[in-house]
Write a structure and sequence with these properties.
By secondary structure, this protein is mainly α. The chain folds into 2 domains: 399 residues, no CATH class; 160 residues, no CATH class. Helices cover 65% and strands 3% of the residues. The protein has a 4-stranded mixed β-sheet with strand order 2-1-4-3, with helices on both faces. Strand 3 and strand 4 form a beta hairpin. The C terminus is likely disordered.
């Protein structure tokens, strides 16, 4: 090749690099200018969220009081990643790999959660053109100091940041739908990603879309445009659902995992009959008001409920007056009432199919109060009086939640210390047994720990999901494996999940004394049995025990009848009982299966 050709090629490459560099510089300058325009709103959004967030949750973010699911999934690479694929949360492993790794690190998770929450607040302010500092401050409290956030932080900390990312992407989907041309198409993959992080946050999308439809009616949109926008909103949600369905089928398959269908929160077990859906609709309408108004609180529940009612009623009156002035025809009024009637369903979509909803699934309830703030600050008459009362009430409610959060977190810390002490004593008893060989003898834990504190001494925070009296210990084989491996740093050898379940449902172990009784640790067919507390059979009513034993005696061909009964037991696969068809593969080591009568302590 001649020197001239080489020089020409070199010059061409150099000019292309120079052109790319110039375009990149222009892009970064434009991006910088856009960011600078948003700096004031971003600043106040971050200040509001971090102020409320650190006041309410700072203790938990700097405390290693992991418990329940956050302990079981302490290292997601061991158990959590597989479970996320099984539960349909297929984007979570990718998010964790990019943002924070597999370990549950409280401060990192807390920081990321508040960042995503602040960006969510910024998007909401842009969506509804909010610039008032007081409004931003109150909205920050709505997003970060609610019972859903508190429950996630207290017990499900390992999921908190990815749930807040799901929230951010859900709000972003509505934002692009509202302001971008063909935004409903861009919103489809965003809805799918939000679902892939946490399905329950679909309620954020649906609730905001209901608010948007009400705004369109209030502004007097022409019917063709109104229905076009409604169809585009439905198309965005439906399209996002289809993309998510494909992801749920493809991603677990690639990773060699099947969707779970045998647990209460399994994606595969959520399909219900039409009759069940109708019953669940009734449940939604009967519980929505309760979920909005009544929640655990540091102050008097009645006083806080009255404050919430006054705020919602005030916002409702303002909405009615605005609608009365802009909506003049009967059919528009009818449409508005239909949409308001749909609002409870949009808040509790999970309940429609699963038949229940807990605080983690009810995050969108805080958006109702966010809407109330926006409406109240747009009042034209008696501005000073109404706004002042609204600020006082919202601050009082939020401050009550701040105190509730810190009360719950200190309780979690004390419980964690108690469990460490309790399990240290258990381990000492195991290792002191003359027949126990460390690293060789298999161990099985039977029963659940008794209630280890007086829940009433802590207020009614035990009503929250994950804040129940014995929630530190989840009574599953995975919990014990995680606890001994990471927190006790002990190489204990546990039986497999099937054997664990067999021991825990064997009615004969009801009679075995529980720890710290000297007979609570015993060798049994080469397995060290540790009776922690009551077995599931101990909790069952007498007539259920009789039914269980009758079916077990004459079991052939009646497996299906036994399935609902076994669903009350730990979240492990249904065991194989004598005389019936196998529902799971029996363990290879037959000696680990308990006979009908436990051997005496040696």
């Amino acid at each position: 090749m001649s020197n001239e050709n080489k020089n020409a090629q070199s010059g061409g490459l150099s000019s292309r690099i120079e052109s790319f560099d110039k375009k990149l510089t222009e892009f970064l300058l434009q991006l910088r200018n856009k960011i600078m325009v948003e700096i004031p709103l971003l600043k106040y959004s971050f200040i509001s969220v971090f102020l409320w967030g650190l006041l309410a949750h700072g203790y938990m973010f700097t405390s290693h009081a992991l418990n329940h699911d956050s302990l079981t999934e302490f290292d997601a690479g061991i158990y959590g990643t597989k479970w996320k694929y099984q539960a349909g949360r297929v984007i979570v492993p990718l998010y964790r790999g990019i943002m924070r790794g597999s370990l549950t690190v409280p401060w990192m998770i807390g920081f990321l959660s508040l960042v995503w929450c602040a960006l969510t607040l910024w998007l909401l302010c842009k969506t509804y053109k909010i610039t008032s500092k007081w409004q931003i401050l109150l909205l920050g409290g709505c997003l970060t100091v609610n019972m859903s956030f508190i429950a996630m932080s207290a017990t499900y900390l390992h999921d908190l940041d990815q749930n807040m990312m799901s929230l951010l992407i859900a709000v972003l989907a509505v934002y692009v739908w509202k302001f971008k041309e063909k935004g409903w198409l861009i919103g489809m993959p965003l809805v799918a990603i939000s679902l892939g992080l946490y399905q329950a946050f679909l309620t954020v999308v649906t609730t905001l879309l209901v608010f948007e439809v009400l705004l369109m009616l209030n502004k007097g949109y022409a019917w063709p445009l109104f229905f076009k926008r409604c169809l585009s909103a439905l198309g965005m949600v439906a399209g996002g659902g289809i993309i998510y369905f494909v992801l749920v089928k493809v991603v677990p398959y690639i990773n060699g995992v099947e969707l779970s269908s045998d647990k209460y929160n399994s994606l595969g077990g959520q399909i219900r009959s039409v009759m069940d859906i109708l019953k669940n609709l009734g449940k939604i309408y009967s519980t929505t008001l309760k979920n909005l108004i009544l929640s655990p609180t540091h102050y008097s529940k009645g006083v806080v409920a009255c404050e919430k009612i006054m705020l919602l009623v005030t916002a409702g009156i303002i909405l009615f007056n605005c609608t009365r002035k802009s909506v003049g025809k009967l059919h528009r009024w009818l449409m508005a009432f239909i949409i308001i009637f749909i609002l409870p369903v949009s808040l509790q979509i999970a309940c429609l199919f699963a038949g229940f909803s807990h605080e983690l699934m009810l995050y969108s309830s805080c958006l109702v109060y966010a809407a109330a703030i926006i409406l109240i600050f747009n009042i034209k008459k008696y501005q000073t009086l109404v706004r002042t009362l609204a600020v006082v009430f919202f601050v009082a409610i939020s401050w009550s939640n701040v105190q509730a959060a810190n009360n719950l977190y200190i309780r979690k810390r004390i419980e964690a210390d108690m469990v460490r002490s309790f399990m240290t004593r258990v381990l000492d008893r195991i290792e002191a047994h003359p027949e126990y060989k460390r690293g060789k003898t298999k161990v099985v834990f039977v029963g659940s720990a008794p209630e280890h504190f007086n829940p009433w001494a802590w207020g009614k925070y035990h009503e929250l999901v994950g804040a129940w009296p014995d929630i530190q210990m989840t009574h599953t084989n995975e919990w014990y494996a995680t606890y001994f491996s990471y927190f006790m740093q002990n190489k204990i050898v546990l039986v497999d999940n099937d054997t664990f379940t067999q021991y825990n449902i064997n009615p004969e172990f009801e009679k075995m004394p529980a720890f710290p009784d000297p007979q609570s640790v015993m060798m049994h067919n080469g397995v060290m049995v540790v009776k922690i507390g009551k077995t599931p059979m101990s909790y069952m009513p007498v007539f259920v025990k009789v039914l269980f034993r009758k079916v077990e005696e004459n079991y052939a061909g009646k497996v299906e009848q036994l399935q609902p009964l076994l669903s009350v037991f730990p979240d492990d696969p249904v065991p194989v009982l004598k005389g019936g068809k196998k529902t799971e593969q029996e363990p290879e080591n037959k000696d680990t299966l308990p006979p009908e009568t436990p051997a005496k302590t040696k």
